[in-house]
Amino acid sequence: MKMENFYQNPIDVVEDVVHSKKWTFSRADDHELVAEIASHWCVYRLYFSWSEQIKAINFTVTFDIKFPESKSKLAYELLAHINEKLWIGHFDITSKNGIPAYRHTVLKPYGNEILYKQLEDLVDIAIYECEKYYPAFHIILYEDSKPQEALKLCEIDTLGRA
């Protein structure tokens, strides 16, 4: 019997991906996993939840910053500009607490190996997008800048670090 044909809880596959990256994680139950990673800009929390009913994994990455109501108009304008550029997933701001989040949903393909590779790619893309646009969110939150100006800084390709 091929491993690919063996049924595995999709969150177990997520756990395998997260474990391979050596990230800290916990399982709230069979259908949820939360991981935490420190990046160049901040600490990200990754939330994965499986819906048996629709056979999909919902994936969210949250930032460690929070927008007050006074900055929400600028933050939503920034979101609109960023989301126009994305091919996969989208950014939003949680209505409950004003935290920026990257979100994407994956329909479970047939086979654990395909799902593993798909999740591995998704996580890499999500972290890349979060790292790319984090400075714009930070600028909007802490400086007196317009979203288009903050976004321009994210579009500059840099080589190395100072």
Question: What's the SSE blueprint?
Answer:
Layout: H1 10-20, E1 24-29, E2 32-38, E3 43-51, E4 56-62, H2 72-85, E5 90-93, E6 100-107, H3 112-142, H4 147-154
Antiparallel strand pairs: 1-2, 2-3, 3-4, 4-6, 5-6
Helix pairs in contact: 1-3, 2-3, 2-4, 3-4
Structure description:
The protein has 162 residues and is α+β, with helices and mostly antiparallel strands. The chain has a domain at 3-68 and 86-129: 2-Layer Sandwich (Yope Regulator, Chain: A). Helix content is 40%, strand content 25%. The chain is built from 4 helices and 6 strands; from the N terminus they run αββββαββαα. It has a 6-stranded antiparallel β-sheet. Helix 2 (72-85) packs across helix 4 (147-154) and helix 3 packs across helix 4 (147-154). The longest helix is centred in the C-terminal third of the chain and has 31 residues, at 112-142. The chain starts with 9 loop residues before the first helix and ends in an 8-residue tail after the last helix. Residues 1-5 have low confidence and may be disordered.
The biggest sheet, with number of strands, parallel, antiparallel or mixed sense and barrel status, is: 6 strands, antiparallel
The CATH class label of one domain is Alpha Beta
**How many helical stretches?**
4
Name the shape in a single word.
Answer: elongated
- By secondary-structure content and strand pairing, the structural class works out as alpha+beta
- The end-to-end span amounts to 53 Å
